[in-house]
Write a structure and sequence with these properties.
alpha+beta, four-stranded antiparallel sheet, 12 helices
Length: 232
């Protein structure tokens, strides 16, 4: 579509559509997105992934969307323009996969990130929603720079300094956001998660976009702002 991929890449995708698809996808992930890393050559796969996602080539549409979403999340202005056609056809497929439903929380969150990536959002699509299925974020306090864990899973909802699993740290309560007061993007994510029946994800979003109190200095901060600052 946009570029002419190498013969090796063409041959790799040509192997899809048979009994060994699981192995083929595993090899494609190793070659194109090894341990979540994206390379210049990874973008050459986008025409193939778009074709698979839309039924124009053999393969699993969801697998194609998930790989393409990871790649798209790293696209700069040049790549976004070069692969605009691919992103345009991948976006409705990602939305349909969400609407079709999945009970797997990580897959649901990854699909949310894919939608954002194909829309051109380059912050939350780049892995920063994954704490919603880990039910934990690690951030730095903006006041005293202590490393904090923001937890909202089975162990409770709190902020703590240090390793709360093996130590006995001081914990402070989280202050979740009111869903009705969320800004446009988190409100849309919250609504999508609620409509899809992923209440744990919806609940996690209120903590992610809510506030926390640092147990070391008592400073109050917005959790999402510190997540945004991490790994910039």
């Amino acid at each position: 579509m946009t570029v002419r991929p190498s013969d090796d890449l063409a041959a790799a995708f040509a192997r899809l559509g048979g009994e060994e698809d699981g192995q083929v996808w595993s090899e494609l992930w190793d070659d194109l997105c090894h341990q979540g890393s994206v390379y210049e050559d990874s973008f050459l796969a986008l025409p193939y992934l778009a074709a698979i996602a839309t039924g124009g080539a053999p393969g699993a549409p969801q697998a194609a969307v998930l790989m393409a979403g990871l790649i798209a999340a790293t696209a700069d202005e040049e790549h976004s323009a070069r692969y605009a056609a691919e992103f345009a056809v991948l976006l409705p497929v990602a939305r349909r996969l969400i609407d079709a439903g999945t009970d797997d929380r990580p897959t649901f969150v990854y699909l949310l990130q894919c939608v954002l990536a194909f829309e051109g959002e380059r912050l939350w699509s780049a892995g920063k929603l994954e704490g919603l299925f880990y039910e934990e974020y690690e951030v730095d306090c903006p006041s005293c720079e202590s490393t904090l864990f923001i937890a909202f899973g089975g162990d409770g909802t709190f902020a703590s300094a240090g390793d709360y699993v093996t130590a006995d740290p001081v914990k402070t309560a989280l202050l979740p956001a009111d869903p009705a007061a969320l800004d446009a993007l988190p409100a849309r994510l919250h609504r999508t998660a609620t409509e899809a029946g992923h209440e744990a994800v919806a609940r996690g979003l209120t903590y992610l976009f809510g506030r926390a109190t640092c147990p070391d200095c008592a400073g109050v901060f917005v959790v999402s702002e510190q997540v945004e600052e991490s790994n910039r």
